[in-house]
């Protein structure tokens, strides 16, 4: 019986991990999309960053309703509903691309992200819960590694489809042919993504019994609570609020760097006038030189995959390290290194700064899953309320990129990384504070395990 239960847990974990891959792939395509719409619709940095805003603002609006929904429908039904909503968002993007209306692009991104938000609220605690509580950090980090594999592939496909012939440097112009080609690429990308999500929904529908059997069941009291009660519950916990602040800063910094990475690498101060990246094994092959001296926006957009690929490698390595090193201490080291890298880029710059920027993803790797599980362990609020509140804090990905976009427009892409550097330093303080708190396991709450 015990072996059968473990087998069910493993099957459920594998099923849920496929969802992490899917939303990672979709989310990372925002980076080349932001770079593309600036040229397609002739936008400023801040206006182009509205694409990221429309996507990530959904987390601030939908997360707590999603938590309330999860408490009523439980994991399997909630995830299927989320996937249906994601298909609707993709179909809206198809209409937006065919009509060439930027406002409709923003609407489609919001609907798509609303589905992903519901998916994350359900899947993150589920992945952490499916097994021995002692390894919750490891499991969620491993699932996030597959999420990172999706984020690695997304920018490569997006740059290939969205950025051919698109230029955003001052004084450059986008031809009608390039504009039409980019819009056709957006149409094709979201058509195939909608098919992928529909297939995942069917797959998950047939695997729902496995997940339902393994998933933690919320109490009747939790199921009766509304959104305001969820919010009140989360706000009653000091660590739920601290964790939400940490998620806000982390996601804001990560998204701001990722969405501006292509512009940064394409700038003349970094790689715009250099062929250096094409001489680096794998990097040059991934970017695929077009034969024109310097790095074009499309080539830079493909290089963004390395930023997310670093997170994938870091999560695989982090899964091993977290089995041996206390989570809070490892988080403190990674955030301090990321802050130092941002400061190097801001105040030293040059061609080498391009390589440093891409490597930040390596140290972003463990931040989300570790912040999430550190907070779940310390929060006195219910798991559903805490999870919903943490996912709501992903709204940092909507707000901080707008700030970084405004700063980059004023002082340049390199100096704008002072903002993410400040975020990472604050995250280091969070990690050190969490590491000093002694967490005791409580009855009926196996998730609150000792590090």
From TrEMBL:
User: Keyword Transmembrane, does the record have it?
Assistant: yes
One Pfam annotation, family name?
MFS_1
A cellular-component GO term for this protein: plasma membrane
* Keyword line: Cell membrane, Membrane, Transmembrane, Transmembrane helix
Q: How does it sit in the membrane?
A: Multi-pass membrane protein
Query: Which PROSITE patterns did the record assign?
Result: MFS (PS50850)
Q: Which Gene Ontology terms cover its molecular function? A: transmembrane transporter activity
InterPro entries for the chain = MFS, MFS_dom, MFS_trans_sf, MFS_TsgA-like
Write down what this protein is called.
MFS transporter
């Amino acid at each position: 019986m015990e072996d059968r239960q473990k087998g069910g847990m493993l099957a459920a974990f594998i099923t849920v991990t496929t969802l992490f891959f899917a939303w990672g792939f979709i989310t990372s395509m925002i980076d080349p999309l932001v770079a593309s719409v600036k040229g397609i619709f002739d936008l400023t940095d801040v206006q182009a960053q509205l694409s990221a805003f429309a996507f990530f603002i959904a987390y601030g609006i939908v997360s707590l309703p999603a938590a309330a929904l999860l408490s009523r429908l439980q994991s399997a039904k909630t995830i299927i509903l989320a996937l249906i909503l994601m298909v609707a968002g993709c179909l809206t993007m198809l209409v937006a691309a065919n009509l060439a209306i930027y406002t409709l692009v923003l609407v489609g991104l919001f609907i798509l992200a609303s589905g992903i938000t519901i998916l994350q609220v359900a899947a993150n605690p589920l992945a952490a819960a499916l097994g021995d509580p002692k390894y919750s950090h490891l499991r969620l980090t491993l699932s996030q590694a597959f999420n990172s594999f999706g984020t690695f592939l997304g920018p490569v496909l997006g740059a290939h489809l969205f950025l051919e012939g698109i230029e955003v440097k001052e004084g450059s112009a986008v031809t009608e042919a390039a504009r039409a080609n980019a819009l056709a690429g957006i149409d094709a990308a979201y058509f195939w993504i909608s098919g992928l999500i529909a297939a995942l929904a069917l797959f998950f529908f047939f695997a729902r019994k496995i997940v339902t059997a393994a998933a933690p069941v919320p109490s009747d009291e939790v199921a009766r609570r509304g959104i305001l009660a969820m919010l009140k519950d989360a706000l009653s916990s000091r660590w739920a609020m601290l964790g939400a602040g940490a998620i806000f800063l982390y996601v804001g910094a990560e998204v701001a760097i990722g969405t501006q990475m292509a512009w940064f690498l394409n700038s003349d101060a970094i790689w715009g006038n250099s062929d250096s990246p094409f001489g680096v094994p794998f990097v040059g092959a991934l970017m695929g030189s077009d034969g024109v001296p310097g790095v074009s926006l499309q080539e830079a957009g493909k290089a963004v995959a390395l930023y997310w690929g670093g997170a994938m490698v870091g999560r695989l390595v982090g899964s091993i390290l977290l089995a041996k090193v206390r989570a809070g201490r490892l988080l403190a080291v990674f955030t301090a290194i990321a802050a130092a890298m941002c400061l190097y880029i801001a105040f030293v710059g040059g061609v080498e700064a391009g390589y440093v920027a891409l490597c930040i993803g390596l140290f972003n790797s463990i931040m989300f899953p570790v912040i999430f599980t550190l907070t779940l362990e310390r929060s006195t609020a219910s798991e559903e309320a805490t999870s919903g509140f943490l996912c709501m804090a992903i709204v940092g990905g909507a707000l901080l990129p707008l700030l970084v976009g405004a700063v980059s427009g004023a002082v340049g892409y390199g100096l704008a990384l002072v903002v993410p550097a400040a975020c990472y330093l604050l995250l280091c303080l969070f990690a050190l504070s969490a590491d000093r708190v002694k967490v005791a396991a409580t009855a009926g709450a196996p998730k609150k395990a000792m590090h």
